[in-house]
Amino acid sequence: MWQNFFAVSIKNSSIGMISELKIELNTLINLEYDTAKLQAIIKQTTLKQHTDFEDHYDYLTKLQMENRKLKHRFAVIKKSITEEQETNGKMHNDDNLSITEHLEKVFTSAIANAYPCFCNVRAIIAAVNVSSPFGDYQCNNAMGLSKKMKIEGIIKAARDIAVDIQKCIPESPIIEKLEVSSAGFINIFLSKKFAVRSLTNMLRDGVRPPRVLKQRVLVDFSSPNIAKQMHVGHLRSTIIGESICRLLEFLQHDVIRINHLGDWGTQFGMLIAHLEDCFPNFINESPPIGDLQEFYKESKKRFDSDDNFKKRAYNRVVTLQKGKTESIKAWQHICDVSRKEFQQIYDRLDVTIHERGESFYQSRMLKVVEFLRVKGLLEFDDGREIMWPDDSKSGIPLTIIKSDGGFTYDTSDMAAIRHRVEEDLATWIIYVVDSGQSTHFNAIFKAAKRCGILNSNVHRVDHVQFGLVLGEDGKKFKTRSGDTVKLADLLDEGMKYSLKQLQERGRDQILTPEELVEAQEAVAYGCIKYTDLSHNRISDYIFSFDKMLDDRGNTAVYLLYTYTRICSIARNSGDDFSNLGAILDTYNIKLDHKKEWKLAKTLLKLHDVLIQCARGLFLHYLCEFCYEVCVVFTEFYDDCYCIEKNKSGQIISVNHSRILLCEATAVVLRKCFHILGLKPVSKM
Ligand SMILES: NC(=[NH2+])NCCC[C@H](N)C(=O)O
């Protein structure tokens, strides 16, 4: 604890010192630059034999003197920066920086040291294909720097610049060697020692999260509407939202999961009026509404055809908003029916979410309206009160108050964003909602900035949008009879398909009934989730159980099978993985074989991938990574024996180092599976 505290203080103070030194260094560099420019001008002037050469000459001599002094100070500062960085580097070796981040840090300072005038240039580091013989990562700055210099009139080949940068790279525990290509790329080879240490640590302590700036994040996802069908759009939001929460939780953010249920609005007037007629005793006895959609349709029919009913329905909207006990009770009953249905889906999909529906904001809507009015941001327009998202007053305005005095979806989202920022104290708000609502969210975000709820320097807001789910005919996803697909039916169908597949493989003969159900659920729900997550969320995708359940290619089934295979290798080795510490004390991971090394390097990309996913909130990168891990593992397993058996199937030797590598692969996959919502099964 004290050690940590001490380390943090030292780190902070040295970071402070570095930045001070850097500012000073910058000033010096600028001066040097000015000098160089003046020199150039003077040279030209001399050539043209300008008359006021003498004046310039005096000035030049003075500048040159000044320059010499500055150069000396510059050398002193440069030296102390390097020293600071070295001590810092030593202290932070064990920090959970991803490999790319670490390399970025090292190369950025090397560029600054080699070319102080480029001290603001950030290193560009790219991962290279794991099979490439030209290193594992690359620094690509030299070409760009050469162009920049050319503009300033300095001709220097990219390759030479790369060599200069290379010379300034301090010793790094993760770099084995560097090579400069003729084009000016710096090829970076990872150190095997570092890889062994990282994998061993991971086996001992589990996958530790990469270091990020911790934030309170509110994720608004799923959010279906009461009495309406929870459709595939909500399914996508539920799956993507849950995974985003898991990812951000793993990155140590403080995550609030919110179900912004559509539980408020004028439709409740007719539902309540209809409930009163169908179940007059609803106050004392919970009404047995079997099919709420049917109930909704019936009440809508009456609303459209019966004027008396319509009047009563309008009146019920008023009594509900005023909080009259009977109407509230009726409303609660109706919400409960939907709530139970939604909860069943969440349980099946292993989704955790906290309900905070639109009704929650009823009183807060009044307040946000007042807030906007006081700021002078509401304008009358044809009986309504509107607010323009920005000062240019272009685009579509938000309707804050309708002409009948009621509030809208815009009003409740303004109240919600205010509550999230001011009361939940969220600094990052994520809305996982289909692309169809992007105009709405753009307007809300702009308006919230305009009225001062959001501050761009403090708050991050994202509309995590996604495309449609299509049927196999490429059209909107519907049942054969043309109805919208009920989510519960869809999950049931997935269960049937997965059972059929397991039976075709004869798994029902091998697994116990419990194991079979476990495998069936893992495959069914896993494939539905994974198909959704493995596509770039922006695009539409075609829903097909046949494709989802393919055991080749980038599918959940392929990943789950590979995972079970890895588990069975470990099981057959006879090593006791419940006591991993003891195994690690006896055996080391070795990375001598080409395929062992390739697998290790692939596994070590995990942190980079997680950071990449969190940056744009795209999970398909993580799916691609899992697939790559499984493919590379299979290559390794094909080429490297882990357990050697004789002709009669008896084990004659176990390569424990490789078993450890298998286990490291399983650890990485388990972490990814958790984020993607896949349930790993050890037998399948
Ligand atoms: N804060 C929000 N507007 N969240 C999304 C709500 C989604 C809405 N209930 C719908 O089904 O379309």
From TrEMBL:
Specify the superkingdom. Eukaryota
Q: Name one GO cellular component term.
A: aminoacyl-tRNA synthetase multienzyme complex
Tell me where in this chain the Arginyl tRNA synthetase N-terminal domain is found.
101-190
Question: What EC number(s) are associated with this protein in UniProt?
Answer: 6.1.1.19
Pfam families on file: Arg_tRNA_synt_N (PF03485), DALR_1 (PF05746), tRNA-synt_1d (PF00750)
In the record, biological process GO terms are: arginyl-tRNA aminoacylation
Protein name (database record): Probable arginine--tRNA ligase, cytoplasmic
